[in-house]
Design goal:
With about 130 residues, the protein is α+β, with helices and mostly antiparallel strands. The chain is built from 4 helices and 5 strands. It has a single domain, classed as Ribosomal Protein S5, domain 2.
């Protein structure tokens, strides 16, 4: 029984994934997918690579996800699942790459600078 480990990141979310052959069970932080992501849209985001490759019932996933918000976590999990599927079979790569599932979205919140109200916003200027 071969276990595949991958990591997916998005904004400040980090998803560590352990994949093994199985019946399609997805556990996130020791909770079921539907329990962790009650929103249908977020569940759909997580399952996108599996649906694209028609592999939804072939693997079991144990995922530890930390940081960020729920949307960022869902997209980090999607990247981790995509990377694991490529690791298992290199022929999956073109289909996943075409959909953009293997692209790490590097956008993060810019830090606040001193002497400013926000990252780039200055304090209001007053002439008098």
């Amino acid at each position: 029984m071969e276990v595949t480990n991958t990591i997916g990141r998005r904004k400040t979310s980090v998803a560590r994934l352990y994949m093994k052959p199985g019946s399609g069970e997805i556990k996130i932080n020791n909770r079921e997918l539907g329990e962790y992501f009650p929103s249908e849209i977020l569940q759909l985001i997580v399952k996108q690579p599996l649906v694209k490759l028609d592999q939804a019932a072939n693997f079991d996933f144990k995922i530890n996800v930390d940081g960020g918000g729920i949307k960022g976590q869902a997209e980090a999990i999607r990247l981790a699942i995509s990377r694991a599927l490529v690791e298992v079979d290199e022929e999956n790569k073109p289909a996943l790459k075409e959909e953009g599932f293997l692209t790490r979205d590097p956008r993060m919140v810019e830090r606040k600078k001193y002497g400013r109200r926000k990252a780039r916003r200055r304090f209001q200027f007053s002439k008098r």
